[in-house]
Write a structure and sequence with these properties.
By secondary structure, the chain is an alpha+beta fold. The protein is built from ten helices and twelve strands. The strands form three sheets. A six-stranded antiparallel beta sheet has the order 1-2-9-4-7-11. Helix 7 packs antiparallel against helix 8 and helix 7 runs parallel beside helix 10. The longest helix has 20 residues. The chain is globular. It starts with a strand and ends with a helix. The mean pLDDT is 90.
Amino acid sequence: MEKFNYKKSADILSLSARFTDFSYKKHCHEEYAVGVTLRGIQQYNLDGSLQSSHKNGVMLFNPEQSHDGSSYGKAGIDYVMLYIHPALFLEISEKKELVRFTTPIVYDAKLAQSILSLSHSIQNGKEESLSSELLLTLIDLVSNTEIDITYRKNNELVQKTKEMMFGNIDHVLKLDDLSKEFDLSKYQFIREFKRHTGISPYQFFLNCKVEHAKQSIERSKDVYLAVAECGFVDLTHLNRHFKSVFGITAYEYMSQLN
């Protein structure tokens, strides 16, 4: 059984998920992701180590931090997740630099309740003003705990590669062009990028395409425009990769946002 419900309010995307036999492929998000495991055990590989979030575990993901995901055992899992854009996080926290979570899973009842309250508000279509207030409470709570440190700036190779990828999101990935930019062989470049990010250039670029397609759908409510803008072969191609990251197809995601 798979159930993925996406709702958006106050510029926050909320996911309420339940599944038994489903697994996410390795991917990353542009946003911070914070969530709570409600039932079962959620497992994922993060920064080279296996993480297990049990009931009431608060999961903390940094922007562009690659991970996969699955349930442990046959009982499945229920959980909620909130996606917060880094720029919005900075605006609310009034910090000069982004923070980076150093602990991927914590068991903090107050933090868990703050996440659940905001998720409930968004999922149930409460007034946006309420969601904004709950978001402020959550950001203040996160920003003033010992689970964050100053964000370490990206390696120059990774940062420049990302800029080149973002500028060519509607094209195919050209590893030869990227590797020449750094005077590396194609294989040296792949190894170096993966060493710094934990994910291959191809998978990262594909994730970028899916993320930009999601943003296009949110703006235009048109999945076919997202296909064209992000360089997918057709809607089937987009849907296949979209579901591996978000659990539902691009069309289903668009339908939930309407």
